[in-house]
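Weekly puzzle thread! Below is a chain. First person to post its structure in token form gets bragging rights.
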Amino acid sequence: MTKKNNPICRSFRQDFPEFVERAEALGVNISLGEGRRNGRERVFWLDGYKQLTGYTTRSDGMPFTRWDAEKNIDNILTQIEEDRAAAAELSIPDRFARVMAEFRQMVPQYRMIGEVRQPNGDRGHCFFMADYDGGVSLDGAEVAKAKAKWQQGETDKAHMARFCDMLEADFARRQEEAAA
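Winning reply:
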């Protein structure tokens, strides 16, 4: 495979060969973070958003070791495997409901992007501008999209709830169209 179409970076293959086969089977993307300078550890990222290695200390204050990195990588790959197995038994509306449950817990931050990423690959996003604009994708296919315009006197929480209601309405509409 060439560098461009190889989802697992060469450095990860060298440092953690015991996890390469599992990662390839899952189809995840593992990349090396920028800036390995001045003796700092390599930082590997899963799908560009979840840090696998490169922490300096553990939660108990002890130094982060290779054993901790291996344990962390194993835990994350196991979570993905288990979540994909669980999601395989769920219907499309149930998977959509899982994403929406996380969306409804989200606290909007103006001029930020809110993302929901399930381990099985289901995703949702929202751009928190004056208008909340975003959508939900299951298996890489968009299943709902909404844009909630800002209304005078509306709180961020109410705006987010209205955006979520619009996503759910669009999902229901698309499901009805697909059934017809």
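Puzzle host: Confirmed. Bonus trivia for everyone else. The first strand starts at residue 30 and ends at 32.
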